[in-house]
Design brief:
Length: 592
Amino acid sequence: MATPKILTTRYFLSSPRGGFLCFSSWMTPPTSHCHDPILTTISEAIKVSPTKPLHSSLKRILPSLTPNHVIDLINLNPHSLSPPSLLSFFKWLSTQHHFRLSIHSYCTMTHFLCAHKMLSEAQSLLQFVVSRKGKNSASSVFTSVLEARGTHQSNLVFSVLMNAYTDSGYFSDAIQCFRLVRKHNLQIPFHSCGYLFDRLMKLNLTSPAWAFYEEILDCGYPPDVCKFNVLMHRLCKEHKINEAQLLFGEIGKRGLRPTVVSFNTLINGYCKSGNLDQGFRLKRFMMENGVFPDVFTYSVLINGLCKEGQLDDANKLFMEMCDRGLVPNDVTFTTLINGHCVTGRADLGMEIYQQMLRKGVKPDVITYNTLINGLCKVGDLREAKKLVVEMTQRGLRPDKFTYTMLIDGCCKEGDLESALEIRKEMVKEGIELDNVAFTALISGFCREGQVIDAERTLREMLEAGIKPDDATYTMVIHGFCKKGDVKMGFKLLKEMQCDGHVPGVVTYNVLLNGLCKQGQMKNANMLLDAMLNLGVVPDDITYNILLEGHCKHGNREDFDKLRSEKGLVQDYASYTSLIGDLRKTCKERQKR
């Protein structure tokens, strides 16, 4: 018996966001859905699909199939098909080139899956819908989900929809879904609200996260002091200390008690912003409210005092901490050690270090590096090297910073031999030199007049892919000029310019000084003109270098007389005027 031909047509409904949604309708006399032969044929095909492919079973009716058949099959499920088998059929149908599922079909299947607690599968379908509809589609998709509620209704579908938008990165749409749920007096999907909040925080979208958190709190979302603490921490990191303070005030208003973490977060924020007074006020306030400062509280305040150079107060606070029975950790000790080392009191830093060992607190690499840096700065290389041996004996490996500080210290003390030995040790350990280490070596070579070694190190630096700064180039140029090799100085100047550097007045002054010392006054004046053409503004040092050159290689008596009349030369006009007068005087002297 031939299957009756089913005529199909399509009609369109306007969507709330503009545009149209397309649905299919089959123009046949109304029949009882439960006894619809097409639904029966589909159901039977799904049942035997493990042994007989769907395409083979449905080949005859596939051209007549419409999205409404699919919707009826899901809503009515007349043959009680299992949810996984229905989903499998739905997915197969979505791959058929000549059949297009409507958004209503997707929303109906999502409701069905949510009703059967197949939430990840439901989200996958809505994720597809969201990807097709794009950003700012929450209103239209929400309406479609709402309209698709049939025999299978579950509030979980709105939670899944929020998650789909959140995972797609459409956060404003996810928030819009929450607002629409609230508007329609539906159950608020708190779990999805928390998930969205966490995603916003993870992406450092602090202000939107706080605004959203306020909204959901007002809808009954359970307040959590940990979330407040995380928000305050982010605001402090963004230097929004006033907003963090307001947020701190909200903790009490929401019926919660600030924890020691809440206080510490805000104290840390104030200390980092330089407002130590407010930090100490908060410490007093927390104690008045029965929250006792911990090691972190004291460490943060001690660090703030050390940065302000208030080491006496830092030591007093450290003693107070110990008197309260709190055991300072490695961070506390290192903070105090650093405070003393920065002010040039490495000896006091060493005393704190010994106290640290007596209390059984193990120093880490940062502690040792802090001490080594302090000792190198005051020129106590022997003690610094002893600490390197000690840290190695404790099972700690010196890192790039350790070696770099030692190289810098040795170079400043003129001990290039030790610096080069340390460099060899770095290479042996597989540690690459950084910008600071290369620059320290170049500076040391230049200071000792070993300009060839300085230039070779500069080349090694470039080969390592590290770009020297203007000061490093200028050091080497100065070294060659002092040796009388101005030509090499100009070669390096050209390299600087080719490497994208724009040499400043200091570099030009070094070259001018080299030319003037050799009596090349004509070239010196040409270099001055070149400076001016490049927009480099000469300073008083520039002109006085040039005048000194004219003085040494001209008539000293005439020069001194003119200079006493003109005063200090600070600009180009004064310089040219003085040189013009000097030349005029020389010519008059020659005529006589």
